[in-house]
């Protein structure tokens, strides 16, 4: 695992820090803005809150998990979170318009660079 990338993730989770990144993951590129686990979990909770009963229960669990991350500090982090993310497997991103929240394991990142791939929409 890359120590510098892990430092970015640690800082995003423990401070108010974001940076645009493009990750190489198993032959694809994932581009977006680094964000905290709290932001990711909170956004996921909001996406699920207007669904049925099961969806609302899951939403509540994500909200509780998001709140618990506020005070947590770790020596090592396993996951990286991006917002406004796009995945490139070829020359067309997924999604083609807008972006999504993305979560991946740090150990699966093969490489990265600072900056985000911009596509004219």
Question: Can you give a write-up of this model?
Answer:
It comes from Salimicrobium album. This is Gas vesicle protein GvpU. The chain has helices at residues 3-14, 37-48, 53-69; strands spanning 20-25, 28-35, 79-88, 93-94, 100-105, 109-114. The chain is built from three helices and six strands, in the order H-E-E-H-H-E-E-E-E. Strands 1, 2, 3, 4, 5 and 6 form a six-stranded antiparallel beta sheet that branches. With 121 residues, the protein is an alpha+beta fold.
Outline of the structure:
By secondary structure, the protein is an alpha+beta fold.
Question: What is the strand content?
Answer: 25-35%
Give me the count of strands: 6
CATH topology-level fold name of the domain at 3-38 and 71-114:
SH3 type barrels
Shape: globular
Give the count of helical stretches: 3
What average pLDDT do the residues reach? Answer: 90
Order of helices and strands: HEEHHEEEE
- Structural class, from helix and strand content? alpha+beta
Q: State the low-pLDDT regions, or none.
A: none
Question: How would the blueprint of this fold be written?
Answer:
Layout lengths: L2 H12 L5 E6 L2 E8 L1 H12 L4 H17 L9 E10 L4 E2 L5 E6 L3 E6 L7
Antiparallel strand pairs: 1-2, 1-6, 2-3, 3-4, 3-5
Helix pairs in contact: 2-3
């Amino acid at each position: 695992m890359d120590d510098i990338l892990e430092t970015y993730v640690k800082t995003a989770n423990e401070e108010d820090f974001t940076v645009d990144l493009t990750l190489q993951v198993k032959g694809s590129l994932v581009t977006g803005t680094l964000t905290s686990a709290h932001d990711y979990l909170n956004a996921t909770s909001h996406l699920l809150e207007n669904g049925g009963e099961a969806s609302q229960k899951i939403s509540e669990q994500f909200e509780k998990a998001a709140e618990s991350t506020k005070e947590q500090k770790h020596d090592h982090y396993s996951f990286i979170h991006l917002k406004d993310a796009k995945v490139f497997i070829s020359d067309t991103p997924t999604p083609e318009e807008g972006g999504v929240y993305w979560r991946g394991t740090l150990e699966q990142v093969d490489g990265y660079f600072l900056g985000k791939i911009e596509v004219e929409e």
